[in-house]
Structure formats: structure tokens, C-alpha cells
Design brief:
Elements: H1 4-26, H2 48-69, H3 79-85, E1 89-92, E2 97-100, H4 107-119, E3 139-140, H5 146-155, E4 157-162, H6 165-174, H7 183-193, H8 205-209, E5 218-221, H9 225-235, H10 249-264, H11 269-278, H12 280-285
Parallel strand pairs: 2-4, 4-5
Antiparallel strand pairs: 1-2, 1-3
Helix pairs in contact: 1-10, 7-11
Length: 303
């Protein structure tokens, strides 16, 4: 019986996907990436100038967050400490790319794309680095020594995928993470376990991706993947237009906008406030001003 609520939500999600896709075809709409994200309108084409401008705004916001947060900004000399901090970071040594792997943010499609690019023989970007190149997809950054890690952080194109934390939480529930019979009880389990024991599926992005330690070149918002990644790869010297997968994040963003409102209403005020506190760093660091949790975010703290 405990799976019936999730089954009902899955059915509602399917209906919402259909309805929101019809709406997407019929009328222009703004994405939920926040006020720093370009509008996802019907027939909208993201120009290179707009893409680069939006990237500057996102990184400016991130730098402002890091300047007041007191987060780690220096790479530890201890291998064990580096492994802990960099556990979510992956590198493609053939493509000179580094990214933070977080479920349900678009990295699944990104990995498929990298696999296709790795198969091409003419994509090696020769950059002198003080270590032997290891052409292996999805190598963990923490596997390298300090010298190699510093070289990669300084020379590789670094990509950060971000998504509304409340939508990530819903996605984790829909995927059956945990055994809670309802979304409200699932949220309570997440809050009770705390950030230290949080799964990577819903752990705050700031804790997983260390954006104050890693100066990402690009911050890509879920909902705009195809157009943003097209510009990103061309800027990195990789012609991959014909290889870009069929991203469905725009439709998913519409669906989750509807679903978020329904599931947010299931939570108590105390749960909403605690969730806002749980994700306070992500809400401050990234353009999620339209997230349901943003309205409950208190005055920025010093962390």
C-alpha cells in the first residue's frame, strides 16, 4: 500500500507532462531557471552573446556567494581530504573537460555526449600537462596527485550543472529513493538524516561540487541544456552539434513546475522552512529565485 501514493503521483506526472508539452507548443513561456536564465520561448534561439552574458551573471552571483560564505577555496594537500572534497568531480582527459556529476541535473545526457565525442579521433586537444595523459572517460579527479589535479583545475574546461533543489528532491522521491510512503514522510526522513548523511541525489550542490574551490567556466541551468551546451562545446573547440542528444529538460521543467506546487502544498510550514534552510547555500549561490523554497529563505547568513 505504501507505493500507491507514488503510483498516483507518477500517473499525475504523466498527465502533467502531456498538458505542459501542449502548453509549450501553444504559447511562449519563461523557464524556471531564475531571473538570470534566458527565456525558453517558442522558437527561441539563444545567441552566443546572450549565452556569454548570462554566464557572466551566473558566475558573478557565484563569486559573491563565495566571498561571504567562508567555504574552502584552497586545494588541500592531503590526498584523503582532496578525495572527500572532489568525490563528485569527473574528468575527460581526452577532451580536457571537467564536470560535477550530480543525478537529475542533465549530466546523464552529458555523459552520453562525451562517450560519442571520445569515439571521434580528431577531438584530442593537446595541452601540455605535467603528467601522462590517461584517455579514459569519467575518470575521477580525486585519482590524480596534487600536481595533476592543480593542472587540470587550471587548464580544463569546467562545467557545473544546476537544478532547482526542490525539483531534485521530487525527482529522488519519484525514483524510489528511500522507503517513505508519501512525499511528506520522505522529506522528513531527508531532514532527519541531515546534510552529512545525505544522498548525492538530493545533497546540496554546493557541498557536492565545491564551486568556491573549483572556478567553473560554465554554469548550465536545467531547462536550457541543448542550446547552452551547443555554445559551450563550440567555445571549447568541440564541434558537436550533430552529436547533441535529444534533451527533454525543457518539458521536464514545465512538468515539475506544476508538480512542485502540488507536492509543496503537502508539506507543513516547519518542513518548508527546514528545507529552505537545508538548501540555503544552493539558493544563495545559484539562480533559483523562482524556486518554491526561495520565498522562505531568511536573510543570508555568514557560513
Amino acid at each position: 500500500m505504501r507505493f500507491l501514493p507514488r503510483l498516483a503521483i507518477s500517473a499525475a506526472l504523466g498527465i502533467a507532462t502531456f498538458l505542459s508539452w501542449r502548453l509549450l507548443l501553444r504559447s511562449p513561456a519563461a523557464g524556471r531557471g531564475g531571473d538570470l536564465a534566458p527565456k525558453a520561448e517558442e522558437g527561441f534561439t539563444l545567441t552566443l552573446d546572450t549565452f556569454l552574458h548570462v554566464q557572466q551573471l551566473r558566475k558573478k552571483r557565484l563569486r559573491a556567494f563565495c566571498s561571504r560564505s567562508g567555504k574552502v577555496t584552497t586545494l588541500p594537500r592531503s590526498r584523503e581530504e582532496r578525495a572527500r572534497l572532489l568525490s563528485s568531480l569527473r574528468v575527460s582527459t581526452k577532451l580536457d573537460l571537467l564536470y560535477c556529476q550530480v543525478p537529475s541535473t542533465g549530466t546523464e545526457e552529458w555523459q552520453q555526449l562525451l562517450e560519442k565525442l571520445e569515439e571521434k579521433e580528431n577531438v584530442t586537444l593537446p595541452v601540455p600537462l605535467p603528467y601522462p595523459r590517461r584517455h579514459a572517460l569519467e575518470t575521477q579527479l580525486s585519482e590524480f596527485n596534487l600536481t595533476a589535479t592543480e593542472a587540470m583545475l587550471g587548464s580544463y574546461t569546467k562545467v557545473l550543472f544546476v537544478r532547482d533543489p526542490f525539483q531534485r528532491l521530487i525527482s529522488a522521491f519519484m525514483q524510489g529513493m528511500g522507503s517513505s510512503p508519501s512525499f511528506s514522510s520522505f522529506v522528513q526522513d531527508v531532514l532527519d538524516s541531515g546534510q552529512h548523511n545525505a544522498s548525492v541525489t538530493w545533497k546540496p550542490l554546493v557541498s557536492l561540487c565545491r564551486p568556491c574551490l573549483v572556478r567553473y567556466d560554465y554554469v548550465v541551468v536545467f531547462g536550457f541544456l541543448r542550446q547552452e551546451l551547443g555554445h559551450l562545446l563550440r567555445q571549447a573547440g568541440l564541434a558537436a552539434d550533430s552529436l547533441l542528444p535529444e534533451f527533454t529538460d525543457t518539458q521536464a521543467s514545465w512538468t515539475y513546475s506544476w508538480l512542485s506546487e502540488q507536492m509543496f502544498s503537502e508539506l507543513s510550514l516547519q518542513q518548508k522552512q527546514k528545507l529552505s534552510h537545508f538548501y540555503r547555500r544552493d539558493l544563495s549561490a545559484f539562480p533559483f529565485s523562482s524556486s518554491f523554497l526561495s520565498d522562505l529563505l531568511s536573510t543570508p547568513e555568514t557560513w
